[in-house]
Amino acid sequence: MLGFGLAIEPQLWALIFVMVRIGAAFIAAPVFGAVSIPLPVRVALSGAIGVLVLGTHPVTPPTEVFALATFLSIAGEALVGLAIGFILQIAFAAPLVAGEIIGNSMGIGFASMIDPQTGRSSAALSNFLSTMLTLLFLSVNGHLVLVDMLVKSYDAMPPGAAWMAPERFRDIAFFGSYAFAAGFLLALPVGFLLLCLNLIVGMLSRSAPALNLFAIGLPMSLGVGVIALAIAFPAMGDYMIIIVDEGLRAAQNLVFG
User: Fold this and answer.
1) How many domains is the chain built from?
2) Where exactly are the transmembrane stretches of this chain (predicted)?
3) pLDDT tens, residue by residue, 170-191
């Protein structure tokens, strides 16, 4: 019942209730939450996965739609979905940190472009690394792992009792430091070479003050940075796989404990 003497189809109301958690996760999660994904596509995916959930889990939605207990249950469902998507988004922030570090060291920090995930302007190198991480995420079926996690979350955190404990919020906050640590480690091979180059250029500028530091240092930083990226990119790709695994593992620990 709607609460005003009006009736609603029980199956439709159960589907809408299940779609709250799934839709909230798709809003916050990478790939699914990209601005390039149309809203009807997200709604259709949420509905399709909601039908799968209803077919495998005995979900019982609140009896009345316009009731305080129903609003609290919906808020709990949305909170769980947003937490699952947000913790994956934290892992996807590591390439943005690495791109800023490398780009500023190479002297191309001013080059920016529109990020296809967020629709905001960011460093071009950060967008390149973020795109590579997204492709690796899809190549290892991370999106399917996310969908499977959402379906199984109805066993670990059933609707109606889905409020997250304080220690789970603490885990999300602690995992936020992983974005900076992973970003620094991702930028370490190229950043170390550029740091050595800057030290050499600084020694040259002190020993030969007549040299034009900007005319020499900027082309050298750009050339060494491009070569270092080409050499270190296989190792960076391997570490991006680790970032994806850590993000999915953190999301699974959040849901299943």
Assistant:
1) 1
2) 12-32, 39-59, 65-88, 95-114, 126-151, 172-201, 213-233
3) 888 888 888 889 989 998 888 8
